[in-house]
Design goal:
Elements (H helix, E strand, L loop, with lengths): L1 E6 L2 E4 L4 E9 L6 E7 L6 E7 L4 E3 L7 E6 L4 E6 L8 E8 L18 E2 L3 E6 L1
């Protein structure tokens, strides 16, 4: 079992920055792969970034160069540093974890069902 709790969301103007955190508890074996997903009203939940325990990452194209996913395994925290925020980044952001060590991460961006554990989400609103 893994419990994930996101924090750090808020409302910012376009061009601003936010840093999301996801505090994890439970078995570390169930957090081999972690990710951030986001979902806007009436839209599908889509992957933002994925990170493996060893630090290997992948990003959705629209956030590459603006967002950085990282994890502190000793502190059991997953981060998403977001800069140059755009109105289209507005969504509820979810932290996710899965026990599988995926050898290729990019395909996970459109497969939220691959992740076993989820946080409650934190809202990010970017105004124009």
């Amino acid at each position: 079992q893994v419990t994930l709790v996101e924090s750090g969301g808020g409302s910012v103007q376009a061009g601003g920055s936010l840093r999301l955190s996801c505090a994890a508890s439970g078995s570390t074996a169930n957090r081999e792969t972690m990710a951030w997903f986001r979902q806007a009203p009436s839209k599908e939940r889509t992957g933002v970034a994925v990170i493996r325990r060893d630090g290997i990452t992948t990003y959705e194209d629209s956030v590459r160069g603006r967002f950085i996913i990282s994890r502190d395994n000793a502190k059991n925290v997953l981060y998403l540093e977001m800069t140059s925020l755009k109105p289209e980044d507005t969504a509820t952001y979810y932290c996710a974890a899965d026990p599988s060590r995926w050898s290729s991460l990019r395909h996970l961006l459109n497969k939220p069902a691959s992740f076993t554990y989820w946080g409650q989400g934190t809202q990010v609103t970017v105004s124009s």
